[in-house]
Amino acid sequence: MHICKKVILSIIGIVFPILALIAWWVNGWFSAQLEATSQLSKQNFSTQVQAVIGQNLSSFEQYAALYANTYDILVEQSKSHGDARLPSLPEGIEVFRYSPMKPKYLYPLHSQAAQSSSLAFQQALNQTFAHDSGFVWLGGQAYLMQLVPIAGGESLVFRQSLTPSYLAKLITTSARSPVSSDTLSPVPKPLVTNATQFDVENYAGIRVALPAFAQMPSIYLHVPYHPAIAAGLTRGIAWLPAATILLGLLIVALACLWLKRAVVEPFAELNQQLEAIDPDAKCVDEIKLKASKEFTKVVEQFNHLLKTISLHKERAKVTLEAINDAVIVTNTNANICYLNPQAESLFGHHSKQAFGKDIDQLVSSDSLFTPMISKLFRSDDHQTLSNKVKLRTQSPKIAERNISKLFGYQGEVIGSVIVIRDITQEELLKSELRRRANFDRVTGLLNRSAFEYQVESFIANAQSVAICYMDLEQFKLINDNCGHSAGDEMLALVARAMQRSLAGRGLLARLGGDEFGLVLQNYSKHEAELLLKLLIHSVSSQVMHNDDCHHSVGLSVGVAFVEGLNRPKAMEMLKDADIACLAAKRKGNNQIDFYDDHDKELNYQRNAPKWAVRIAQAIEHNELLLYYQPIKGLAAHCQRKRLEILLRILEPNGNILPPAQFIAAAERFKLMTEVDKDVIRKAFLWLSLHEEVWHDHCLSINLSGNSLGAVGMIEYIKEQQARFEVPSECICFEITETSAIQNQTRAMEMLKQLRALGFAFALDDFGTGFASYGYLRELPVDYVKIDGCFIKSLATNAKDYAIVKSIHDVSISMGIQTVAEFVENQDIIEALHEIGINYAQGYAIGRPKPLEEYLPLRNAKRA
Asked: Mean of the per-residue pLDDT values for the chain?
């Protein structure tokens, strides 16, 4: 229905009844107000009439009293002079002389009074006995009467007839109320004796009770209330409801006209322009409308909304066209509604050509799209269905498919959005990365990470396991002489030879460099050894030709073999196999060695990495402890007390670890330089805190072969000496014979620089290594410590006695003092005295103790 008709019906159905109700209420309210006003006016007029009557009655009484006094005076004058003329009376007033004691007791004093006297008048006078005034009805005529006593027991009676002229004057005087005097007019008989002579109930006038004369019945003054005012007011309000309705209709008509011009017509124009908008148009024209400010605001909002929608649409279009993924929009029936350019290019169909087709007709893949879309529509969640599919296009492709619900503006599902991303190259790259991540590029075997990942599952249910660590021999020679490419070629030959020999048995991998790993399951120890020998033979048979040179390699194999399900972890067994491989290499080329946990040397090798880590932690947490062992002077001239600084590690549980368990690991993993630095720092600190020993003590500090000639070691020693300010004569550095000879050049340079600073040196373990007196002659040492293997049986073995004596004689001739190690009893001490050894060290002299508990210092403190 048209909006104008709706407005008119609304006005007729709602406004008209409201207007009628208002008109009815206004008319009733105005009538009530008019009636109340009329009653109030009548009451006010009645009050005013009574007041005027009272005033007239009072004036009449005063006049009568004055006349009576005058009359008495005149009577007295006439008795004495015989001449008495009564004063004249106003018109309408009659005077009588009344003498009740005489037969004829009513005497008119004026001619008009005589004519008006009657029997009823006399009867009225007979009813009063004293002064009295009031209104009385006599013979059909109303009078105002006043009785005034005079001399001689007589009275004067004053009477005034209530004529129409008197009444008109009376009413005119009273007409000071809102009711005009024009509305008052006397009736033919305005005075009545009682209510029965006049229809009071139907009388519209005012009824006023007049004061009665003597005991005469009361009379009433009936003043007619002229109907002109009431009739005028009634006519004035008669048109009010109609006027109200007409005014309402006029307002409604003006409202309809205004609504038509200000609302209906602009709204129709707006609706027409909105209907003309094409949602598929590239550009949307703005709405132009001449209307009120309210519609201008609405138009602005519409235009802003259109611009926003157009902007979002353009953004969505540009975004869909810009992304590299194929985007397909379908309706709820899985029919295509839109393809972006990438989808058009991928499937070879234009968007308009594909419109309305089933999705599976366009996209041919290993799985149907329609069931997936139906499944998505049936679900209540808003999650995206994602999976990988193979597209059967001109060239097969692997794609990632994401299907999402498409919702309308009211939240209802109106279709789906399918995003297809070509991940063919990514999958190929992932495959290549997986291959590279799991397989060695050179040999094609598993790499170390893949080997470690698969080995546990490979041996999970095996009854016996043999984990082999294999290292090529002479492979470094090929790399150094022929280059790494030739080395890679040799590795490839070795890997193929291993694979042929194993024929799929076991888990084979290249662990890195020229090292290989192999895991065999459910083989006996003997069967594993035979297979490994075959493998060694196959590898050693491989010959590589390079520049007229023929190269071959050997193979050393270490095996960790365990039977039963209760076994260590595979990586622990691989470490054992590595240690066994080192033992096999020491045996020679193409050897096999099985790890034996009862072999002490192998256990040291196995635990060496753990000890290396423990040493690093001890240095970091300041857990290295200094012990001392005394070195006793056997000759009288050896006055300076000597202490060798030994090293221990404090465990968190309070145990003290001896050096045999960690020194070898520190030397293997090149940690001894840091250990030596920490020992030097702590020894120098101890000396700086005990200056009382500087004059007669010397600390012997061991320097490892790694520290000899190490870059920065000399500077470190100088720095610590300057820091703690200890004298050089209190320090003696001990170096082993083997390390000094292996690092002769560096050791010689270091010894010279430190001796220039005043430090002493001792050559430790002399006589067991490559020692010769020629080296002893070249090394600038102050002391020679004879190895304990010659000292232990010195008292019972003549050969050891001769060797020790020979070393001592040569040293003395070179100006070098001698120190005997491992002195364990008094017999050895006596033999050393015979030879002339300068110093002795061992359990017979003193056992190692913490440096902080050095007894001479403790005794000095007590003293």
From this structure: 78
**Residue owning tokens 């101890």:** 686
Q: From CA 73, how far away is CA 150, in angstroms rounded?
A: 10
> How many folded domains does the chain comprise?
4
In the three-class reduction of DSSP (H, G, I as helix; E, B as strand; rest coil), residue 158 is classed as strand
In this prediction, residue 672 carries a pLDDT of 84
Residue 370: domain span: 323-427
Burial class (CB in 10 A: 0-12, 13-18, 19+), 660: exposed
CB 225 within 8 A of CB 42: yes
Identify the residue with better confidence: 314 or 645: 645
Instruction: Tell me the pTM.
Output: 0.47
Final residue of a structural domain among 545, 577, 597: 597
pLDDT digits (tens, 9 = 90+) for 179-191: 333 333 333 344 4
Q: Which of 616-620, 687-691, 801-805 has the lowest mean pLDDT?
A: 616-620
DSSP result, 437-494: HHB-TTT-SB-HHHHHHHHHHHTTT-SEEEEEEEEEESHHHHHHHH-HHHHHHHHHHH
352, with CB counted inside 10 A (0-12, 13-18, 19+), is exposed
Which domain CATH number covers 848? Answer: 3.20.20.450
> For 705-739, what is each residue's pLDDT tens digit?
888 878 889 999 999 999 999 999 999 999 887 77
**CATH number of the domain to which 404 belongs:** 3.30.450.20
Structure letter (DSSP) for residue 14: I
CA-to-CA dists, residue 139 to 127, 158, 394, 748, angstroms: 16, 17, 143, 182
